[in-house]
Amino acid sequence: MQIYLDCIPCIVHQVLTSVRLVTNDVQVHEQIVREVLTLLVDMDMRQSPPAIAQKIHQLIGQLSGEYDPYKEKKQRFNELSLKIYPELRRRIRASASPLETAIRLAIAGNIIDFGVNRSLEETDLEEKINDSLTSDFDKTHLRSFKDAVIRAKDILYLGDNAGEVVFDRLLIELLPWEKITFAVKGRPVINDATIEDAEMAGLADMVNVIENGSDAPGTILESCSHYFRNQFAGADLVIAKGQGNYETLSAVDKNIFFILKAKCPVIARDLGCEVGEMILRKSKAFEQEQVYVGI
Amino acid sequence: MQIYLDCIPCIVHQVLTSVRLVTNDVQVHEQIVREVLTLLVDMDMRQSPPAIAQKIHQLIGQLSGEYDPYKEKKQRFNELSLKIYPELRRRIRASASPLETAIRLAIAGNIIDFGVNRSLEETDLEEKINDSLTSDFDKTHLRSFKDAVIRAKDILYLGDNAGEVVFDRLLIELLPWEKITFAVKGRPVINDATIEDAEMAGLADMVNVIENGSDAPGTILESCSHYFRNQFAGADLVIAKGQGNYETLSAVDKNIFFILKAKCPVIARDLGCEVGEMILRKSKAFEQEQVYVGI
Fold first, then answer.
1. Which of A224, A289, B273, B285 is most buried as measured by Cβ atoms within 10 A of its Cβ?
2. For residue A41, is pLDDT > 50?
3. d(CA B100, CA B130)
């Protein structure tokens, strides 16, 4: 998905939130914002929002010397998510449709996204979780998700954010783990999950966890390691979590299920849904393949 | 009041709203946004937000050829405000505190501000009006406002937006009109009121209406005509309506009453109030003068 002009205010907001985590020096804030604006003046609008965000967060790192401003927030949301994990697990087991409940919760976890929800507080989380269990949810693809997971031999699950990975674990616990590889970012960017977060969430004890070698807040294959690209190519099913992964992979020719909350008007327009909607959707390539199988 | 980094996302939003009113050509939108970003890269942060906005809206005019993108919206909100004017007038007359009710309504009218409330719909207006009649309102300065108006010999009322001028008329109807000069912008900028709007609101039949000679969405004295500056200098009381006038005049050494709704976090921080709060406040110069009189 390409970037839109409407993404620019959001990017500047993101930059302000990040630089304020790094330093209280308003002159540094101003210097970094001016550099970011300079970069935006000449940006290639055919790129995806995470491709631009990657460059911007690299720039913040270079100019401030801090490459992981969200370190503390990531840890707090990991801890908070782990604290409520047992209760959420009980809710899934007690549910009449455990898979649906686990997917709803995996989507609820997707609100822990400081790229979009910049002022998210810990106290907001439980309310959002409850909302996600009762909100409208288009279950059209639930059955084919289940079938695809059963049929697949090699599943690559692309994680999104710290904290959210605990919610991914709840879903993965209902899936055939032995076939799943869980991928995290190669280096910190915003609050995207890295290997430490997957370990903290307990995922590393369940499934094979790999790094993608990149610091883009999404999955830009050209930016990923050779090893990761091989894993991606070899997987016959990809589960891609969150906006960043949708934005970077929606046009890729691959069997992908996207699981996310549509948190901004730009992505909602691209998905043809309302802002706030919970999304479980197949990639175009997957839709076509399934039609073919049907014939 | 100087501009803050937090104003940048808002400015870009404002530009997008404006250029989309001018043309559907996304390439033109992109070109204008890139030019605006170029201007922001080097902006002088000591300037007020309306000083930057003035340059940006001049740039939009130069690049698009359209200097009055909000023409239709201004007309619609004038008409809508005039439609509800008789009912609002009745409410003021029936009120136990007509002046307070008129000031509350004048503040309610200040929501017709497409610089901040970019997606304001006509249907929102009545709800906002009702809110403003019942919301908390710090009446500390109400008495001294009344006294100042009675005492003044020459009052300059600085209007803000189209539509809103009808609400200003409701307030002016309770004041000694013969002493009031009502000022509007010299040329169109966003939905700021110009002479046509003051005429449409019926103000031109009540009070002396003058143009300030400027196209800044506030009152930047250096940008105003010599004639207006004389009027400003000669007035012994200024009533300054809206955010733009506060942002440009809050540091000016003059007896001013600011009447506005604090619509964004930046101005709320400057005023030391909550976003959405209704404000009737004296300028610092006025506070000092009154203390002196008190001695």
1. A224
2. yes
3. 14
Q: What is the mean pLDDT of residues B231-235?
A: 98
A9 contacts on B by Cβ (under 8 Å): 8-10, 12-13
Give CA angle at A127 (A126, A132), nearest 5°: 95
Which residue, among B210, B206, B128, B130, has the nearest Cα to B172 in the 3D structure? B206
The mean of the pLDDT values for chain B is 94
In percent, how much of chain B has pLDDT > 70? 97
CA distance B119 to B226: 36
What is the per-residue pLDDT for A256? 98
CB environment B66-89: b (16+ within 10 A), e (fewer) = ebbbbbebbeebbebbbebbeebe
Task: Output the 3-class SS for B89-142.
Answer: HHHHHHCCCHHHHHHHHHHHHCCCCCCCCCCCCHHHHHHHHHHHHHCCCCCCCH
pLDDT band for A290, please (50, 70, 90 cuts): low
Region of A273 on the Ramachandran plot (φ > 0 left; ψ -120 to 50 alpha; else beta) = beta
Two domains, one topology: B7-64 and B71-294: no
Query: Domain spanning B71-294: which CATH class is it, in words?
Result: alpha beta
Least confident of A4-8, A46-50, A290-294, B176-180: A290-294
| List of residues 6+ apart from B168 with CB closer than 8 A | B106, B109, B157, B159, B160, B182, B201, B203, B241
CA–CA distance, A118 with A264 (Å, rounded to integer): 12
Q: Phi/psi zone of residue B83: left (φ > 0), alpha (ψ -120 to 50 degrees), beta?
A: alpha
Q: What is the pLDDT of residue B172?
A: 98
Q: Which residues of A touch B6 (CB under 8 A)?
A: 16
pLDDT of residue A295: 46
Q: Give the mean model confidence (pLDDT) for residues A7-25.
A: 96
Q: Indicate the domain borders of chain A.
A: 7-64, 71-294
In sequence order, the β-bridge partners of residue A122 are none
pLDDT above 90: residue B6: yes
| B9 chain-A contacts, CB cut-off 8 A | 8-10, 12-13
Read off the tokens for A172: 């993965």
First-last CA distance in chain A: 30
Measured in angstroms, the CA of B85 and the nearest CA of chain A are apart by 36
Q: What is the least distance, in Å, from the CA of B168 to any CA of chain A? A: 33
Residue indicated by tokens 């400027």: B214
- Coil, helix or strand for B273? coil
Mean pLDDT of all residues belonging to chain A: 94
Give Cα B207 distance to the centre of its chain. 18
Of A26, A37, A45, the CB nearest to B37: A37
Instruction: Give the model confidence (pLDDT) of A186-215 as tens digits.
Output: 999 999 999 999 999 999 999 999 999 999
Residue contact A40–B38, C-beta within 8 A: no
B7-64 under CATH 1.10.8, yes or no: yes
What's the ipTM? Answer: 0.90
Q: Report d(CA B257, CA B290) in Å as an integer.
A: 13
Contacts of B121 (CB under 8 A, 6+ apart): none
Comparing A144-153, B96-105, B124-133, B150-159, which segment has the lowest mean pLDDT? B124-133
Chain A neighbors of B8, CB-CB under 8 A:
9, 12, 33, 37
